[in-house]
Amino acid sequence: MTDEQLLRYSRQIMLPAFGYEGQQRLLAARVLIVGLGGLGSPVAMYLAAAGVGTLVLADFDAVDLSNLQRQLLHTSERIGMTKVDSAVRTLTAINPQVRLEAIKGSLTEANLAGIVSGVDLVVDACDNFTTRFAVNSACFAARVPLVSGAAIRTEGQVAVFSGQPGGPCYQCLYPRDGDMDETCSANGILAPVVGIIGSIQATEAIKVLAGIGEPLIGRLLLLDALAMEWRSLRLPADPHCPVCGV
Amino acid sequence: MIRVLYFARLREQLGTSGEGLPATATTLADLAAALRGRGGVWADAFALDQTVMAAVNQELARPETPVADGDEVAFFPPVTGG
Q1: Within chain A, how many helices (H) and strands (E) appear?
Q2: Does B15 touch chain A (CB under 8 A)?
Q3: Which of A39, A89, A110, B35 could form a disulfide with A198 if both were Cys (CB 3.0 to 4.6 A apart)?
Q4: CATH entry, B2-76, from 3.40.50.300, 3.40.50.170, 3.10.20.30, 3.40.50.720
């Protein structure tokens, strides 16, 4: 590490659990962020600021006025720009040392396998079950850990999946039965709720990459922000899961 | 007695964060059916076309999961947005 890096990251390097070694691991890591919206904004900004070596940024969408209430990566003058291009500008300004790779098309089961096998960790910050299931399958196939978060209205959920046999995986949590998609455009979202959930996703990603603490593996964290109450549930592997079951 | 908790959107929709119920139901599906039978917002929240998730004693559970006297059951909605 250069003197500039030692100073830039000094406030986390001084943490005994994280240290110089933790920073080295972050700098060497490649992370895929799926979705650059309400959750993806704090995830990408924290991971860039904290010095994750390479961020692979995936979003098919363009910045819209209605995004700006909560999607802190994007700004008023970038309406109409692709979210990936907008994110590159913000993240470069935060930390020019981070390598940024752009994926502007949609993620599909076909292209995810190749993308996921080339990263150390995936953060799922998207807004629909179809992509979430495809990301989960690709992560399990490639044995890549997955940090999954979701938020709507005034509530949110976070879990971490190891990607290893024995699970659980995302599909143990949500069996693929029926159409449960609800969108922020139809149901609304209180701005800082995506910030809370995305910040937890960034924290969990750093923990997994640096090998510190106890990640939310095998647990589901639920937030009810109106009551400001959390619940932590154990998440057993589903032995009949079509993705991770034996 | 089964301690039943309602979380997030369900808490708002049902107007209560929880209650104690006699342990007459033997599975989560039975319990949901009994709540559905109350009609009104309960019938809406636990309608068969609504996905409601649940945990028994802080562990994610399925409709066929047994429930018994002394258990804590928490119902909560699925979330996919972001």
Answers
A1: 10, 8
A2: no
A3: A39
A4: 3.10.20.30
